[in-house]
Batch of 4 targets.
Target 1
Amino acid sequence: MAITDWPEHERPRERLLAHGAANLSDAELLAISLRVGVKGKSAVDLARELIEHFGGLNRMFAAGKTEFSAIPGMGAAKYAELQAVLEMARRALAEGMRERDAFSSPAAVRDYLRLRLSGLAHEVFFALWLDARHCLLAAEELFRGTLSQTSVYPREVLKRALAHNAAAVVFAHNHPSGRTDPSPADEALTRTLSQALALVEVKVLDHFIIAGQAPPLSFAERGLL
């Protein structure tokens, strides 16, 4: 049955307008973006299948165009629409961090990093460069690796810090394995970068590990900085 044939109070769009987006399920929210289903399936049915196929919203958004478009009923247009929604969410969070101390809203930092890194099948090393007031100057991927490791070069990190005239930085990397536990190599790298950046008066404020749906791990909160 098409959603247009549902009772009005059960339709996702009408439920959102009446009760707010937070009261809708993942499938209902996705269905609003999809707008229509396919033969024999409503948009909500299709949304549920998509989420189940990818194992969650994070992995669905991280999927490439070819993988996403291979799903019956999907295509390049749907892929572009969903990526646009995701990018707007990222930019909205980054905009807030540019306007005020990024750590005045720690949840925004975590949410932004999860949107950028969670669900990726490869490991990346990421930096949030901050000014003296801890407002965001730039967010950039510094290095990209394999499923198990990435090579991070302190000299290149220092070059980027100087290029942005940064006063502080927040590092982050993802664990595609889904575990947030820092490895001895993660801890050693963080110490090396902190010592190197201190020479040019750039303070490492934190280093986050992002892994799937798990809460991001903070090196600062763990006493690892």
Note: The longest helix spans residues 76-99.
Target 2
Amino acid sequence: MLREVVATRYITPLREGGSLPGLVEADDRGTYVLKFTGAGQGRKTLVAEVVCGELARRLGLRVPRLVTVDLDPVLGLGEPDEQVQDLLKSSGGTNLGMDFLTRAIGFDPLAFEVSPEEAGRIVWFDALINNVDRSWRNPNLLMWHGEPWLIDHGATMIWHHHWPGARTSAAKPYDASDHALARFGPDVATAAAALAPLITEELLAEVTAEIPDVWLTDEPGFDTPDALRRAYAEPLLARAAGIHERIEGIK
């Protein structure tokens, strides 16, 4: 399971994202970007962040470290913004934190260069998880110490919003025509040869085991959290073998 920390101070809201994440300090003296269970997108967004973030890490891609953050809603009592107060009040308990990358800057595809090899690995990964939110308009990439880091995977695996249609949804191609890295000539074939064999039942079981049980309870159609974990793994396993042949919009 992800390492657990306790929020000790709510610093400020981060208004760049639609879910209104916040910056917090924790009892390990770390500073984290906190994503809330009470946000409009709900706990499935946090599940997607965990599955995709931890999978990316195991594939050698750069992602901020993830932790679970225990939040006491009392930390928000001094926050003057009523929207933020309501969010904190509705998010007591287990939330998701990611390392705050100090002095990181947003990725601009016109200002930075990415090699075809690295672009290929990122595009292949986004195709695997069906990431619809890494466009040139909103790259969801940070440059930190001169290298690109992947963030914000809440808008992925859209099939988990309708499990009866998951198999059909997961079989669809991936449109990369608006991808932030499309202009760098991503070498998807080489990426697939290196990464697809790593996507095994064992790896996906390890990744999905990181999801807190509390985010997997009461899901219609599933009796146990582990049954839902297997449902998350199955489309990814099926998609890995051939998704590189169904990426559209890049040369």
Note: The mean pLDDT is 95.
Target 3
Amino acid sequence: MEQVSELRYAPMGHAAHRYVVKRQQAKDKKKGLLWRYHVVITNDQRRSAKKLMKWALGRCTMENLIKEHKHDVGFEKMPTRRFHANWAWLLISQLAWNLMAWFKRRCLPDPCRSLTLGSLRQRLLNVTEKIVHQARQLFLVLSDDNLFQDWWSFALKRLAQLNPISP
């Protein structure tokens, strides 16, 4: 259940602002019901409350992607004091992030699409595995204790289904 409403509020001595509030019913860990609130303070008078809330929450998605770039790829600190080395490092890091985003969308199951790069790296890439070459084929051998073997098998099947681009 989701509700959107708006109100005007003016603190003492200040002009009134438009507050758009969305509340959404959710379940907590103990299966009890609770309300989650999102509030936007704006001077936008043109858009309806629902459209404004959708626009504002869409911006949050972009801010979360920027935060993921900064923390999961390591953009918060440059590795050297040389401009061209840092530039190359940023380009390589951006390429790696884009490849993981593509891999996440095209090859992984739906529950993985909302995970950050750091979570995916921890669950899929930082595991005990080895690649075995046998009878002119490559095999990925995972530990029996790996909790994410189904994700790997799903991804490998999806990769096999992709069509290469013809020259």
Note: The two ends are 51 Å apart (CA to CA).
Target 4
Amino acid sequence: MIEDIYNSTKEHMSKSIESLGRKFTTIRTGKVNTSILDNISVDYYGTMTPIAQVANISTLDATTISIDPFDKSLIKDLSKAISDANIGATPNDDENGIKLFFAPMTMDQRELGVKQAKKMTDEIKVAIRNNRKEGNDKIKKLFNNKDITEDENKQAGDEIQKITDSFIAQADENLKNKEKELLTV
């Protein structure tokens, strides 16, 4: 019973850490990443569709992304959607596709990226602490229903805290790595 609560808590916290990793991919580092386009959609026959579903996206070098739409009639719509998203590059389009040329990052941009990463990490830490509260509430309910003893209640609370501490440490480690990646020129 208590093990199930531990496993459930670990699973939820693990998903929070995975979410942090996905969020970090949207922050531009020194080398462009195609995931910067993940949150951009285009109107494709009346349906808002992510760019990755209507085009091949690739990086040509550290500062250039190439977008090759499957349907060439989408080029103007794609170009407008990218411009509206304000991702730091102006789309250069021709009849074959779109190229995005990103300027090398300035130190101010890198520091802004670090601030974004810290904010994302803080949000994930809140989610992890909420998972801890849910786990503790389940343990408390077992104790109040007399399903576990007072000693088991205390041990379970301590174990939930250990689990929480380990996931908070993982989030901090991910942040430290992202900061290093952002600030390395």
Note: The chain has four helices and six strands.
